Amino acid sequence: MSVPPEALCRLAAAMLERAGAPPAEAREVAQHLVEANLTGHDSHGVVRIPRYVAWIRRGWLVPAAALTPVLETPVLCVLDAGYGFGPVQGRRAVAAGIARARQHGLALVALRHAGHLGRIGAYAEQAVAAGLVALHFVNVAGSLLVAPFGARERRLSTNPFAIGIPTGDDRPFVLDCATSLIAEGKLLVALEGGRPVRTDALMDADGQPTGDPRALYGEGPHSPPDPSRGAGALRPFGEHKGSGLALACELLAGALTGSGTNVRPRDRLYNGMLSILIDPARLGDGDAFLAEVRAFLDWVRAARPVDPVVGTLVPGDPERRTAAERRRNGIPLARPLRAHLAACARDLGVAEALITGALGEEA
Ligand code: NAD
After folding, report:
1. Does residue 301 lie within any of the structural domains?
2. Is the pLDDT assigned to residue 186 strictly greater than 90?
3. Which end of the chain has fewer CB within 10 Å, C or N?
4. Quick one: pLDDT band at residue 57, thresholds 50, 70, 90?
5. Cβ(313) to ligand 1 under 6 A?
6. Three-state SS across 217-236?
7. Distance 151 CA to ligand 1 centre (A)
8. For residue 191, is it within any domain?
9. Which of 265, 283, 301 is the last residue of a domain?
10. How far does residue 176's CA lie from ligand 1's centre (Å)?
11. Average pLDDT for 278-303
12. Does residue 26 sit in the same domain as residue 160?
C-alpha cells in the first residue's frame, strides 16, 4: 500500500510530539524523515520513528536541545548539538556554515554529539540550494556495524559522506552514500517486510558473505531491532578503498570534530559531522563553473546506457526521479511496517484519525 506523504508527515510529527518533542521540532524531523522516504531512502524514513521514541525514553535523544558554540571564528565553527534531534541540529549547523561561506568563500563546521542526522544528502542539498559546494563526512558513535576490509570483526559504523555540487538548475549533483555496501536501515526495512537486501551485504561470524539480517540482529523478533545482537557484520563497499574511506569519515567526523570515535564504548548512538562549504563564485567565474558542471553532467548522462529503461544517471537523479513518482503515487510502506508504526502511535496516544488517515483503516 502507498500512503500520502502529507498524512504520513502529520502522523510522524504527532508521534514525535507525543514522545516529547516541541511541535516545531517534531514537524522538522517528520519532514526530514518523509523527505527521505520520498527520495527513495526508506532506510532513513519513518521506519526510524519507533527507534527515536525508544531513544527519547532512554534519554539518548534530547528534545529541544540547544546548539552550543564551542568555537566560532569567521570561517570555523565547532558546535555541540547536545544529543538533540539530528535533522534540527544538522540543519542549524549547516546554516551557520552557509552564512560564513557566503561571507568568506569558505567555511568548516564541526558538529559534535548530534542525534541521528538521518539522510546526509539533505545537508548537501541545503548548501547547494544556497549556491555552495558541500562536503560532509559523518561518523556514528555507539554504532559498531561494519567489519573493515580484511577483518571479520566490527570496528566501523556505516560512516556516510555526501558531496553536493550546484548546477544552477534543479538537477544538482548530490552524492550521498553509506560506506557500507548498504545502509543499516535497508536491513531494518527488510525486517519490516520490505525489499530483501543483496546477498553479499553482510558477513556471518566466519566472514562469509550473506544477505541474512540475522547476521546483524541475531534471532528475532525484537522491538526495536537491536543490531548489536548478531554475530556477523555489514561489509564495506569497494573492498579496501571503501573501507579506507569509512576510516577517513570516522577520523574526520569523530576525531577532528571532537565528537569522539568508536574506539571507546558509547552509552548511546550519535552522529558527528564535519562539513566543508565552498562558494564556487569566489574561485573564479561562478557562471562559467555552473555551465561547466551542467555540460559535464549532461555529457555523462548521454553515455549509452546498459539498461535503456533506467538510462545513465548521475548522483541525485535517482532521488529526484523517485520523489517525483512518490509525490504522485504515494510512499509504499509494507504491511508489517504500517502495523509497527500504528502500534507505536497508539502506544503514544496519538489520535486514531491521524493513524488511519496515514496508514489506512486496517493498520
Ligand atoms: P544508495 O546506495 O541508495 O545511493 C548512494 C548514491 O548513489 C546516491 O547519491 C545516489 O544518487 C547514487 N545512485 C544510486 N543509484 C544510481 C545510479 N543508478 N546511477 C548513478 N548514481 C546512483 O545510498 P546508501 O549508501 O544506501 O545510503 C542511504 C542513505 O543512508 C543516505 O541518505 C545516507 O546519508 C544515509 N545514512 C545515514 C547515516 C547516519 O548515521 N545518519 C548512516 C549511514 C547512511
Report:
1. no
2. no
3. N
4. very high
5. yes
6. HCCCCCCCCCCCCCCCEECE
7. 24
8. no
9. 283
10. 5
11. 97
12. no
Instruction: Look at phi and psi of residue 360 and say left if phi exceeds 0, alpha if psi is from -120 to 50, else beta.
Output: left
pLDDT band, very low/low/confident/very high, at 162 (cuts 50, 70, 90): very high
Q: Whose CA is nearest to atom 32 of ligand 1?
A: 119
67 neighbors 89 (Cβ within 8 angstroms): yes
177 CA to middle of ligand 1, Å? Answer: 4
Nearest residue (CA) to ligand 1, atom 23: 177
The C-alpha atoms of residue 46 and residue 36 are separated, in whole angstroms, by 8
Q: Is 51 in the pocket of ligand 1 (CB under 6 A)?
A: no
Distance (Å) from CA 180 to ligand 1 centroid: 10
**Nearest alpha carbon, ligand 1 atom 9:** 175
Q: What is the pLDDT of residue 194?
A: 83
Question: Where in the sequence is the domain holding 106, given as residue range(s)?
Answer: 68-180+236-283
Q: What is the pLDDT of residues 84-99, one digit of tens each?
A: 999 999 999 999 999 9
Q: Quote the cell numbers at residue 71.
A: 568555537
Task: Show the cell assigned to 345.
Answer: 502511535
Residue 211 lies in a domain: no
Same domain, 25 and 77: no
The answer on 49 and 76 residing in a single domain is no
> What pLDDT shows up at residue 78?
98
- Residues 291, 301: Cα–Cα separation, whole Å: 15
Does ligand 1 come within 6 angstroms of the Cβ of 120? yes
CA–centroid distance, 354 to ligand 1, in Å, is 30
Residue 220 scores a pLDDT above 90: no
Distance of CA 273 to the CA centre of its chain: 12
Whole-number Å distance between alpha carbons of 50 and 73: 39
pLDDT of residue 314: 98
CATH number for position 156: 3.30.1370.60
